[in-house]
Write a structure and sequence with these properties.
The protein is of the alpha/beta class. It has one domain: Response regulator (Rossmann fold), CATH 3.40.50.2300. It contains 5 helices and 5 strands; from the N terminus they run βαβαβαβαβα. A 5-stranded parallel β-sheet has the order 2-1-3-4-5. α2 packs parallel to α3. The protein is globular, with a radius of gyration of 14 Å.
């Protein structure tokens, strides 16, 4: 795990953002986590990062977001050659059976936890994916 990794994390639920931030703090994570609220924001942030040569080392997407879902965002990301090297994580509280096969070709799937300890465990695993 690279200590100064940047993670672009799309999450629309303020409570979940708080859980993620608390988990990162509890784990003493030194990564920079940039939060956005939907897939459209992810694409915009990546455009700016590309122009500034500051692309993240990991992209984390919530499945259920307004404007553009995590799966819709993945379908756009995979068409961008300059982004294909960035690992993608998708997490959700729901059942992704219908889309799981297509998603697994391009992203790792995590089930969103429902408690603090679960968030700490999930954030720890996701942070381990951050390599550069």
């Amino acid at each position: 795990m690279k200590p100064d990794c940047t993670i672009l994390w799309a999450e629309d639920d303020p409570d979940d953002i708080l859980f993620i931030e608390e988990a990162a703090q509890a784990l003493k994570v030194s990564h920079l986590i940039v939060f956005v609220y939907n897939g459209k924001d992810v694409l915009h942030k990546l455009e700016v990062a590309e122009a500034n040569k500051t692309l993240p080392q990991l992209i984390v997407l919530d499945y259920n977001m307004p404007i553009m879902t995590g799966a819709e965002t993945i379908s756009v990301l995979i068409t961008k050659d300059h982004l294909k090297h960035i690992p993608i994580v998708l997490f959700s509280t729901g059942d992704l059976r219908k889309e799981k096969f297509n998603i697994l070709q391009h992203a790792m799937i995590y089930k969103k936890p429902s408690d603090r300890d679960g968030f700490i465990s999930m954030v720890r695993e996701i942070m381990e994916l951050c390599k550069a």
